[in-house]
Prior knowledge:
The protein is mostly helical. It is built from eleven helices and two strands.
Amino acid sequence: MQLQCCTQHIAYLNEIEIIANAAIKELNDGENVKANAMTRSGLVLLCGYFEGFIREMCNEFVEVVNDAGIKCDLIPKETLSEHFDECVELYKRHKKEKFNKTVDSLLNNQALVFNAKKLSATNANPTVDNIDKIFSRFGIEHVLDKLSLSDFSLANMYNVESQVTNDLSKKINELSGGDVDLYQGLVAAIESKWSGKKKRRRVGYLIVIDQLLEKRNMIAHGEGYVFITPEELLATKHSIQKLCSGLVNELEQKLIVLIPPSQTQPPQVA
């Protein structure tokens, strides 16, 4: 099952190549300022297209789920939780109809109609946290870690940091009076009692997204002069396009699980 929005949004991303190639021509003609203005604009446009692609692929995913009329017991619990939270908020504002229908559907294992706009909302900011959060709503956990490990051939996405910080290490060294064995024994005792903290590495697609948003914000808010080469713009575009293709594939694989090919007659929609 393929999401239909992809063709159009890949075409949007391809516009970035047109801008980068035009900037290369300007550089060859000695128009450095003009070329950088084009690449800076291209990077801001790329960020906008990226956010739109995320939003539209997720919106279409929810619409496909709605059209298929999938029974409640097959829907990811994370999606049901988001839907129920929305219904509770409406109930608190004395809008009880959606809440009552949801309870009815859960009791009778009928299909629900989910709010595609709400579930796919990026808040106009495609950060690492926002993308992870959106996909977790569909029962797809740690999606950026998974794609980063695969596409960048990374061994892991986390470092384990000792509980013995630099400041604590200095204090222990002072207390041990330069006795190396005592120092190492104290550090080992602390580390054996308190395991290290896991810290997510900013590698793979995480650093691609972080840098794209950081530079977009600097350009958009006039925070210093950011120089973007055509090569950098092209490399970022290719990384973002590959990431989007991976995200689309995750959604399409999820649809295959949710909507088996044998399903021909959708159940009644509440």
